């Protein structure tokens, strides 16, 4: 298979972890006789520096022309405490999501064997944690009308039926192929938008008799994620609740540096590690590349390269078993970001017959 991939390394540790994901994809291409073409483009703070725009038109075009996007990270501390900054790196990612119609952000969160000591939760609470969060990504308060005067500001939250239905279908289908449980997280006791989500999702549930739907207020969900994380199967929620809860869910397994995500929708899908730009570690070759590598595995899976995706996941598993890992996972015996990537690449080259 030939795949045209847009590579957007972005900011902070983005470039170094993405380089390892590309090396792994190259090993897969070599062993399974595929050709992957890569076109690199700037996004985020680096694009502001180079082009004065966090999403230059060339970058968007590269993405539109690609079969899939491998994304690193976005964000730079020099913008974080400057509310008056005229452009911000994050705007690049938000515009990219909107321009490509990437309405569903999918984040699988599962406990990794042997890593439960890294979790802030007691080991018995981690038993059986295996959930997928479906976060709506192109609507709600992120994209509603905004405004400000000197001492007033507002951000509107709007959703319509179509926006809710299209992601709800994906979440129901996912639940049907898993443990058959879908939890809609909202704030229907307060918000009109949440009441619309409840109505629409409950109506759709008739089409998925094999899925049990339940509803949970977001404040309660924030608690339940800590108290009984294993009780969740598929979680469906709107943009901002999903932003917050998916970060919360990602740390309960103690493996933030290992969690991938996919953003899918109308045009080219985007695959990105969820850990963000981690500026303190940038350029030091210490960041964990596993989330980026596992994001590449999600990309392969969605390209129907199932065996290839499994081979990448197996190589990741083997690296952990061999204790080849960065400091966040293995403070006793530390490997560098590039060493972990190299080990996984070599493992694939050695274990898959040419
Ligand atoms: C995420 C990030 C982004 C978001 C930021 C960088 C705009 O936190 O992907 O979760 O809030 O969606
Ligand atoms: Mg976030």
Detailed description of the structure:
This protein is an alpha/beta fold and 354 residues long. It has 2 domains: 1-106 and 256-354, Isopropylmalate Dehydrogenase (3-Layer(aba) Sandwich); 116-254, 3-Layer(aba) Sandwich (Isopropylmalate Dehydrogenase), CATH 3.40.718. It contains 13 helices and 12 strands. It has helices at 14-32, 45-51, 57-65, 77-80, 89-100, 123-126, 161-176, 192-204, 218-227, 239-252, 290-302, 306-321, 337-351, and strands at 2-10, 35-40, 68-73, 104-110, 130-136, 146-148, 153-155, 181-186, 212-217, 234-237, 260-264, 269-273. Strands 2-1-3-12-11-4-5-10-8-9 form a 10-stranded mixed β-sheet, sandwiched between helices. Strand 8, helix 8 (192-204) and strand 9 form a beta-alpha-beta unit. Helix 1 runs parallel beside helix 13, helix 7 (161-176) packs across helix 8 (192-204) and helix 11 packs antiparallel against helix 12 (306-321). The longest helix has 19 residues, at 14-32. The radius of gyration is 20 Å and the shape is globular. The model has no long low-confidence stretch (mean pLDDT 96). Bound molecules: 3-isopropylmalic acid and magnesium ion.
């Amino acid at each position: 298979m030939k795949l045209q991939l847009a590579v957007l390394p972005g900011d902070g540790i983005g470039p170094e972890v993405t380089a390892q994901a590309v090396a792994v994809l190259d090993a897969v291409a070599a062993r399974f006789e595929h050709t992957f073409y890569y076109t690199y483009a700037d996004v985020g703070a680096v694009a502001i520096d180079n082009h004065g725009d966090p999403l230059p038109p060339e970058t968007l075009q590269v993405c539109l022309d690609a079969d899939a996007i491998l994304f690193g990270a976005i964000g730079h501390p020099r913008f974080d405490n400057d509310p008056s900054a005229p452009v911000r790196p994050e705007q690049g990612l938000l515009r990219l999501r909107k321009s490509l119609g990437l309405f569903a952000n999918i984040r699988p969160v599962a406990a990794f064997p042997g890593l439960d000591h890294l979790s802030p939760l007691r080991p018995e609470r981690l038993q059986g944690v295996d959930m997928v969060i479906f976060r709506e990504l192109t609507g709600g308060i992120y994209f509603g009308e905004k405004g400000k005067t000197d001492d007033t500001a507002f951000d509107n939250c709007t959703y319509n039926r179509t926006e809710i239905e299209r992601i709800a279908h994906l979440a129901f289908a996912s639940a049907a192929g898993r443990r058959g449980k879908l939890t809609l997280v909202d704030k229907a006791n307060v918000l009109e938008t949440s009441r619309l989500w409840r109505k629409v999702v409950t109506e759709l549930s008739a089409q998925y008799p094999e899925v049990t739907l339940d509803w949970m207020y977001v404040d309660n969900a924030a608690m339940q994620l800590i108290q009984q994380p294993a009780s969740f199967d598929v979680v469906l929620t709107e943009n901002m609740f999903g932003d917050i809860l998916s970060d919360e869910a990602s740390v309960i397994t103690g493996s933030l540096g290992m969690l991938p995500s996919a953003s899918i929708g109308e045009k080219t899908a985007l695959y990105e590690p969820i850990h963000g730009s981690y500026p303190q570690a940038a350029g030091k070759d210490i960041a964990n590349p596993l989330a980026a590598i596992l994001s590449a595995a999600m990309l392969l899976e969605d390209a129907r390269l199932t065996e290839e995706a499994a081979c990448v996941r197996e190589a990741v598993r083997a690296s952990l078993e061999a204790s080849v890992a960065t400091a966040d996972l293995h403070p006793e015996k530390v490997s560098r970001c590039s060493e972990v990537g190299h080990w996984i690449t070599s493992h694939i080259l050695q274990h898959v017959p040419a």
